[in-house]
Design a protein that fits this description.
Length: about 500
């Protein structure tokens, strides 16, 4: 449990820095709301983690794995990637080149996601039952949400207060404001790495600690540079193609992006009747690339389609609120310091209580009850932002809305993580959990990316755009409950392979 508090902290610390904090930073630099909405699509990258998740199940990181093992090796490589990406975002804090900001945000999102894939696979291997998984998942989320609060509130407070520290910071060549803020969080993201490196040898591994670290660091540098170069080239080609096609901030590309992102999942769902008939030695089931995903549809059949519909909707309200909650609160006249204080102790305590209750519920009650309670409290958190917009400017009211949001998100998140963990086949923990958790945030993040355009469109017609947006997001959270009567009858098919 202590280990997973640390791993949750490692994954949660960078998340706000390429999502919520980045949206505030872009807004302060005068970037249009529609462009800020497009930056939310950086959060789509975790949706496609199923593309590289099988690599983490199959291959080791050169060097690191000799002493630290497969899972810890990938975690350590990911932490190096997180640190270097955030350091790059700190070196270019003015956002005068949005493509450069996007490049570093994408790299930060990629390595954060890779860390989560490795940690989730290890968690499922260590805790295979709901009774074991509940406390470990709660520990992971405590660390994750504590780090998110530390990054979110700490970055905003430090960005606002860094002016008073200007002489000290400038003496070290650091500009006060966003550069100092991102450097602070980058330093915090680096802390778990030496702690993990100091842990004992992974059972079954050989080699010495020092040799493993040296060769692992050399391999990590090569991997980080190669990935950064490849990402820059791909991004340059995509942006060039978009400009050539006449796509701008006023272009509604959401339908095209939605179709493109949904295509792999829709193809798999359409092939379900054929998948159900596959023999144990069929190439599709034995494939390292697609075998884990074919296995999910083989085990659950047509229930797999209902399961995917449910996971796509259950956390939608939380994700929709995440990207635009801070711009809305800024629009209400609250300062970064006020938001930072609300995202500090208030958010942390509320989230810890919500996660703890969610982790406790899954060990005591049936899934139908726990999933329903989580969805209801998540919806209440979204409705809280609508309530806040109709209140006078009062920091204490901001605390109430923040507490409701974080409590509901924490509870629903804990229940959801354990539920998804129990759906996967233990033969493919990393790949199948990546598949399900990635799909869970596909539609929400696509809609979140268009959120800025939706709010602007509603405002242009004399409607309260933020109010209607957060009201709809809360209702969508409740809509997930319509799937429960069907899902409570879903049972996995016994594996017919001798190896299982």
């Amino acid at each position: 449990m202590a280990l997973y508090v640390l791993l949750g902290f490692s994954a949660g610390l960078p998340f706000y820095m390429f999502s919520t904090v980045l949206s505030v930073r872009l807004a302060e630099h005068g970037v249009a709301l529609a462009i800020i909405g497009f930056f939310a699509w950086v959060q789509l990258l975790p949706t496609f983690k199923f593309l590289w998740a099988p690599l983490l199940d199959k291959y080791d990181v050169p060097g690191f794995a000799r002493f630290f093992g497969k899972r810890r090796g990938w975690i350590m490589l990911s932490q190096l990637g997180i640190f270097t990406s955030m350091l790059a975002m700190a070196l270019f804090p003015t956002d005068t080149s949005l493509p450069l900001t996007a490049l570093f945000a994408v790299l930060l999102a990629f390595w954060t996601t890779t860390l989560e894939v490795a940690a989730d696979a290890w968690r499922i291997e260590l805790a295979p039952t709901p009774e074991e998984q509940g406390p470990v998942a709660a520990s992971n989320l405590w660390g994750y949400r504590s780090a998110m609060v530390a990054a979110g509130s700490g970055a905003l407070l430090f960005a606002d207060a860094a002016g008073s520290l200007a002489p000290i910071l400038q003496s070290f060549g650091i500009e006060p404001g966003w550069q100092a803020s991102y450097l602070l969080i980058a330093a915090g993201a680096f802390v778990p790495l030496p702690i993990l490196a100091s842990l004992p040898r992974q059972p079954g591994c050989g080699g010495g600690r020092s040799a493993s670290l040296i060769t692992g660091l050399a391999a990590a540098i090569a991997i980080l540079l190669a990935l950064a170069l490849a990402t820059a080239i791909i991004g340059w080609l995509v942006l060039g193609a978009a400009a050539g096609a006449g796509i701008s901030s006023k272009t509604n590309v959401t339908p095209a992006v939605l179709v493109l992102c949904m295509l792999p999942f829709l193809v798999m769902a359409a092939l379900t009747p054929r998948i159900r008939k596959l023999a144990p030695d069929a190439p599709a089931r034995a494939s390292a690339a697609i075998g884990p995903y074919v296995d999910f549809f083989w085990r659950y059949g047509f229930f797999a389609i209902a399961l995917m519909g449910f996971v796509a909707v259950y956390r939608m309200g939380d994700v929709l609120a995440l990207n635009l909650s801070k711009p809305m609160i800024l629009d209400l006249g609250y300062t970064k310091s006020e938001i930072g204080r609300a995202d500090g102790v208030v958010a942390l305590v509320s989230s810890i209580i919500g996660v703890g209750l969610g982790g406790w519920m899954v060990t005591r009650w049936r899934w139908g009850v726990t999933l329903t309670i989580g969805a209801v409290f998540a919806a209440i958190g979204n409705f809280g932002f609508v309530w806040l917009s109709h209140q006078p400017h009062d920091e204490w009211l901001l605390y109430v809305a923040t507490a409701a949001d974080q409590f509901g998100n924490g509870m629903a998140g804990a229940v959801f993580v354990v539920y998804l963990s129990m759906l996967v086949n233990p033969l493919y923990p990393g790949a199948q959990y990546a598949f399900l958790s990635g799909f869970a945030f596909l539609l929400p993040r696509l809609l979140s990316g268009a959120g800025g355009q939706i709010v602007e469109w509603l405002d242009s017609r004399g409607l309260r755009g933020f109010d209607l947006f957060f009201l709809a997001s809360g209702v969508i959270s409740l809509a997930a409950l319509l799937f429960l009567p069907l899902l409570m009858r879903a049972r996995p098919r016994p594996d017919d392979r001798e190896a299982a």
